[in-house]
Amino acid sequence: MIKGELLHGLLAIAVAAWMLSLAALCVAETPQDMGGQENCTGFGEIAAQVTSLSNAPSSPNLASPDPISPSGVVNTDKPTYTWKSVVGSIYYCLMVKDDQDKVVLKQWYDASDFPAAPDSCSVTPSEALTPGGYKWRIQSWNCVEHSWSQDMKFTVCESTSLPSKATLVSPKDIIGTKNPTFVWNAVTGSTRYCLKVANANKPNIPIFEACYDAEEVLSGQTCTISPKIDLVAGSYRWWIQTANCKGEGPWSGFQSFKYMKKLPGRCNPLTPSGLTSSSQPIFTWTAASAAKEYHIQVDNDTTNIMDTWCDAAEVTAGSRCSMLLPNALPDDSSVYFWRIQASNDAGKGGWSGYRYFEIVCPMKPKFRQKVRQEVVEGKSALFH
Hints:
Blueprint: H1 2-28, H2 37-53, E1 67-69, E2 72-74, E3 81-84, E4 91-98, E5 103-110, E6 120-123, E7 132-141, E8 146-148, E9 152-156, E10 168-170, E11 173-175, E12 182-185, E13 192-199, E14 206-213, H3 214-217, E15 218-219, E16 222-225, E17 234-244, E18 247-251, E19 255-259, E20 269-271, E21 274-276, E22 282-286, E23 293-299, E24 304-311, H4 312-315, E25 316-317, E26 320-324, E27 335-344, E28 347-351, E29 355-359, H5 365-377
Helix pairs in contact: 1-2
């Protein structure tokens, strides 16, 4: 009995000594010295077997680090990487990949060089990154296990200079909506735009300020945004400031507009008029003062063919408006009449007069002549 207990005691001492030597080796050598992650895993398996033999309680799973920064756009080619410390981690491995998923940086760090959990760890590698997109992650590591964090993406600034000044388009003059759509020309190299609106009598006291990423507002060669401002009747000024990862660009000159809660003016339809060869012509008309929206109505000799609405800010250029119908006109009827109506917050303005046009190609000459004559004599059913 005593002999058995003695043997069991000696075995326990031997296992404990083995574990201590194993732990000492683990701490003494870095993961790189042991051949990287591959040897790290095998070493952890041995440690786990020793733990099992000794009936020692297993340690909790090693947590994944939480990455903090960098993210988004950074202005340096040598960013600082920050993450939350992990209890039980002996080393950390930082890995950075470019937008082609190629590893551009992999570096091990001794956890004893950083504050203990729950504080944060930070490193600034000396390797410079080229401009472009990257993702990074951090690994916690000890003799038993290791755990990678989630990827975090960032972009090293690609701009070499500040963006130039924006050119404003609308609103201007008189408008009929308390929440106008702001339109300006896109600026090369600008990744952010800031909008400022002020009362004309107090231009230094903004009533609205907001910044937008270029992706939020860019549409082709222009930028548009329709914030909820709820203007009261009066005169206003607005500005746009450009910006990118290098810093803030200049503010634009201001553009003035006046919000009046009154019905919009009447439009004058211009084209199409007379003969046309397209079943999907571009419609043009004179802009109505204080218009927020336009309603285009297209009829044939007896019935309504199409109704469509468009935002005034999207179709107005100076004193003219133009738009392409969303759908082609039907081929079975090629004589049409169209008119337009403007509306705003105060209500609907008056309809314009009708403009006549006909699609030439599928049209029979006798039918064209008959319809034209009825229009001249006022006999068309459209006018009754």
